[in-house]
Amino acid sequence: MFTVPNLISTLRLPLALVFLKHDVMVRTVALVLAMITDGLDGFLARRYKQSSAFGTVLDPIMDRFFVFFLIGIFMSEGSLGIWEACTMICRDFSVLLFGLYLVFTGKLSSYRFRAIWCGKVTTFFQFLVFLGITLGIVIPPIIYLLFIVLGGLALVELYLSKESNPVHSS
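RESULT FIELD:
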């Protein structure tokens, strides 16, 4: 379903590709635009009642593509180490673990994934780290430890939310 919010979500793909060019100003503008699109797509979908099943899948896919692509770029340039990169995806690892839990307990088909608080905070800090790296700012190790804490909290939040998550028939 092609709606304005879905179109805005897809903009993160070319914005990520901009990072193939090593230009601080261009990368900074791309990051700011990606941050805007990350919040604007969901806001517009809710505001104008254009939420769709396609959009609820497209948005996190574009988010993950953007994050993983930038992590790969920064690692290849030597400005992000493997340890820092791994910490930045702790939330994604938690979502994967929770998904496996749902599969093994037979609850995957009845669970509706939705945005979680820890996910939004993690994404915000990921953007800040990317901006810092782009601008040549040294990121303190405590920020990377924060990603580990947020990953653990995401797993707890997902597990606790399963109790309040409405069951939908397939």
